[in-house]
Request: fold
Amino acid sequence: MRLIIGTRGSRLALAQADKVCGMLVEKGVRTERKIIRTEGDTNTTAPLHEIGGQGLFVRALDDAILRGEIDAAVHSLKDVPAIRPHGVVTSAVLPRDSPADFLAHEKPIGEVRVIGTSSTRRKAQLLRQDPSHVVKGLRGNVDTRLRKLLAGEYDAIVIAEAGLQRLSIELPGERLPVESFVPAPNQGTIVVVSRDDPSLTETLSLLDDPVTRSDVAIERAVMEEVGGGCFTPLGIYCKAGHLIISALSLDGLREIRREEDVDTVPEARSIGKAFRSDAWELIDEAYRTLGIQPIEERKAGDL
Reply:
């Protein structure tokens, strides 16, 4: 069997696809890599929440799978929307890399004031730590972000540590602790999605890590019940069943937080529903502030 593996064209996406292809080759499966362009790659100036959210990076690859152009695609799981098209399934969840964010800076930490990120979650967490920070928007792939840092446009930038690890990049700076800078749900996790075809799913399942799949399934269940997507400052992180959920106001001044141990996905869904009720005002406020259709005016499945 020879599998055509689809990927975005960024250096990080290619590194992730090459990792998957290498793992498959070790299992005796031949592969071919195919690059698919996405709208999120061509529009790198507008904030993600203005052009459709992280799902932009996935939609084109889903369509290519359904058209039969590729057999499977490699994604960062945090980019994959909760609602998936019929006929596309998650066939493998790889062992998780670092879930943490990394604050990259060359100046002494005490001199860092202007920080680059377009994530509402990261911005709110930074402001909660120090309201004097000036957080400016920053889009683009890893190389683009690093060039802007080195050019002095920012004193520091926030980037997923897993991305640096996958690209073998070492930078001055520090890992942000997941307890206070709660990661985006599923951050640090690579997945392989494919057509819902047993001949594909059985082969790709050779790469699956049950422990990571369990943790990220709990995170995703909470995310689906809470809603908000990439529009709200929401962190969800589970390790070995210990769950942390944090929702912040856009300015970082208010937080709703919950921590507990979770054994099953149904239990995670119950927790997510309760947390949604507790954090409703913060989530709805974020939608309204960003000029997005308010939550109560959306259909239930749209979140």
Remarks:
- The two ends are 38 Å apart (CA to CA).
- The chain has three domains: 1-94+189-208, 101-175, 210-291.
- Residues 265-289 form the longest helix (25 residues).
- Residues 99 and 275 are 22 Å apart (CA to CA).
